[in-house]
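dumping this here before i forget
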Amino acid sequence: MRTLALGLLLAVLSVEMGVATAQGPAVAPTGAVSEQQAGADAKANAEVAPAVKNAEQRATARLVEPQREFKMGDTVQVKVAGNHRLAVTNSKATGVLLVLDDVVMKSIGEPLATQNGAGDLILSFRLSRDPESNDSRGEWKKLLAKQHDGYLMTFPITLAIGSSAALPVATDELKFSVTTKGKMNGTLVAGLVIFGVLYWWLIRDRSALRDFRDGTYSLGKSQMAFWGLLVVLTFVGVWLNTGLIEHIPDQVLILLGISGATGLGALVIGDGTKAAEIAKLEDQLKALPEDDRVGRQPIEVRLAALLAGCRT
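structure:
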């Protein structure tokens, strides 16, 4: 009996140990799966986080009036949406510059910054050109030199934000024109007509372009009148088309200076020649008898003309 009871006890203990051993490995895989799942979720979150962050930081920009044809003095408005992170100080977007066809328009300056009802940032750039600024003239000269398609030009537009890469303004292009073809042609024709009428009037005048009244034409006076009229009408034409009083190039000033010096020299020479001829005619009259009316008359007429020219 003791032997049978001891055998039964050992059998029960063996069964219990077997069950415990079987249950232990079954729990271990469940824990391992949980740890693997947690690692996979963390990795997935790590991969998704940069994408979400980039989506938050991505900003878009578009022209508010993409179909408008802009001219000098107009205001270009750009709408910036998204998390642009642009700094606005005193109603201006700090460090933001307009870039047209890869030309950074620093002379235009930083834009005014406002917000619309949707919370988008509206940047307003005024297209301006300072004729007295070398930088402003240089930027516009570089920009306009790239255009060869006529009076209406199109510029790819981007925004330069500090020293970082530029922010493209979607697929929009800025349409720009200095003037219309009709206005330019009308100004050219009117200028040529006015120039021709005025110069013809000077030619017909008895003393304007001559060394003295009814004398020969002066090359110096003719050159001074020609270039003076041409420069004045040209600058008036530029003002009518652009609304700007253009900077006078140094070459034009040199040309006007040469023409003026030549005209002044012609006046001095003409006065000296006239004085010498008057003195000569007076000597001829003194040499003729008072009663020689035939010989004295042509000399007196010529002398009267020269003296009249001195008074005009």
